[in-house]
């Protein structure tokens, strides 16, 4: 697992560092790459919001590929605390429930 650039805390939301798990010395624990997702359909933003709503701090980092129209054409990386990687992956892999029109 490669940790993102050292300045990622400065580029992430201001409160992320406060929410991020700390090690025994008080330093933020390492980040682990969870996934690569598209920006064009806001999927990366939705994933980060979903993880945060489940109590898992998360952020996007980087732009993969040539930037076209302000978006990363090949996606961005989603990062979570290394200790929460398996839990975050399980949440993303969980089947979704579909509702029928009668249930709305």
Automatic annotation (TrEMBL):
<protein>
    <submittedName>
        <fullName>DUF2007 domain-containing protein</fullName>
    </submittedName>
</protein>
<feature type="domain" description="DUF2007">
    <location>
        <begin position="46"/>
        <end position="93"/>
    </location>
</feature>
<dbReference type="InterPro" id="IPR018551">
    <property type="entry name" value="DUF2007"/>
</dbReference>
<dbReference type="Pfam" id="PF09413">
    <property type="entry name" value="DUF2007"/>
</dbReference>
């Amino acid at each position: 697992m490669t940790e993102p650039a050292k300045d990622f805390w400065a580029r992430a939301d201001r409160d992320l560092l406060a929410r991020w798990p700390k090690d025994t010395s008080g330093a933020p624990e390492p980040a682990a790459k969870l996934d690569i997702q598209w920006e064009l359909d806001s999927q990366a933003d939705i994933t980060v919001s979903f993880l945060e709503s489940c109590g898992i701090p998360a952020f996007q980092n980087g732009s993969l590929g040539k930037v076209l129209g302000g978006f990363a054409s090949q996606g961005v990386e989603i990062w979570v605390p290394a200790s929460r990687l398996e839990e975050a992956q399980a949440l993303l892999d969980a089947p979704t429930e579909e509702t029928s029109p009668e249930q709305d």
